[in-house]
Amino acid sequence: MTDFDWDTFHLFTPYVGAEEVRKWLAIDGSGARDVPEMECLLVFVKGGGVVMDPDFSRTKGDFSSIRKSRFTREEARFTAPKNGKALTHASDSP
Question: Quick one: how far is CA 91 from the chain centroid?
Fold first, then answer.
């Protein structure tokens, strides 16, 4: 569902601090910021550099219950229930 090229997708849930984001990405300062309560930070990486790092409102879909935080293109599949906002990783869906 993206219109740009990327290798890995990193998901940071609410309350993660910029220092943890920076340490986890281990590339550069791009995308490193505190994640507020009502958002998730989505960081797309290609060849060791950040290509897109949007904040994603939890009112659109809530990634906060997903425990894994790094996904390849093949792994980055999520499902959304029709009656709620909580997203799940496709491999964890019933």
Answer: 16
What distance in Å separates the CA atoms of residue 31 and residue 54, rounded to the nearest whole number?
8
Q: Do the domain assignments include residue 54? A: yes
In a domain, 1, yes or no: no
Site of tokens 């601090």: 17
Q: What domain range includes position 41?
A: 8-92
Mean pLDDT of 3-15: 92
Q: Which of 33, 54, 35 is nearest to 44 (CA)?
A: 54
* 68, part of any domain: yes
Q: Rounded to two decimals, what is the model's pTM?
A: 0.82
Domain count, the chain: 1
Structure letter (DSSP) for residue 50 = E
CB 25 within 8 A of CB 10: yes
